[in-house]
Amino acid sequence: IQTDAAINRGNSGGALVNLNGELIGINTAILAPDGGNIGIGFAIPSNMVKNLTAQMVEYGQVKRGELGIKGTELNSELAKAMKIDAQRGAFVNEVVPKSSAAKAGIKAGDVIVTINGKAISSFASFRAEIGTLPIGSKMALGIIRDGKPMTLDA
């Protein structure tokens, strides 16, 4: 989360709340040109904190989900070169053998555009979404293959 709330040195880990007093994030850092407290603040979203906290309690560490693909951002140049209609998504360069992705039928050249109905705008958003899912989660992946939309269960 990007915020304009004043974040001072030493208050990372503090609550970021909305006007109703509801926790929406945990303050982590500030980007300030002069090193002060006026600039752009950053916070970890509360839903991510909840997920990470549950993992720490259960496993003693954070375990991130992984699908088993190597990929890149889908941009207009890549979309044009690969003759893909989509302009955003996670482009699959390679599928790790015997991974969840391989078992689900994902192939190199696919573009992942949704996870459980949530739009994926980039490879970074794909990784972030996968990373927030509990280990072993089942998911519906909206993909584009050879110009045709499909859904795969992983």
UniProtKB/TrEMBL annotation:
Signal peptide start-end: none
Gene Ontology CC terms, in alphabetical order: periplasmic space
Domain of life: Bacteria
Keyword NADP applies: no
SMART domains hit by this protein: PDZ
Coiled-coil stretches noted in the UniProt entry, renumbered to this chain: none
Keyword Kinase: no
PROSITE patterns xref list: PDZ (PS50106)
CDD domains reported for this sequence: cpPDZ1_DegP-like (cd10839)
InterPro entries: PDZ, PDZ_sf, Peptidase_S1C, Trypsin_dom
GO MF term (any one): serine-type endopeptidase activity
Keyword set, alphabetical order: Hydrolase, Protease, Repeat, Serine protease, Signal
Entry-linked Pfam families: PDZ_2 (PF13180), Trypsin (PF00089)
Residue ranges of domain PDZ in the record: 56-147
An annotated GO BP: protein quality control for misfolded or incompletely synthesized proteins
PANTHER family, alphabetized: SERINE PROTEASE FAMILY S1C HTRA-RELATED, SERINE PROTEASE HTRA2, MITOCHONDRIAL
Sequence similarity: Belongs to the peptidase S1C family.
Name used for this protein in its record: Serine endoprotease
Species per Swiss-Prot/TrEMBL record: Serratia symbiotica
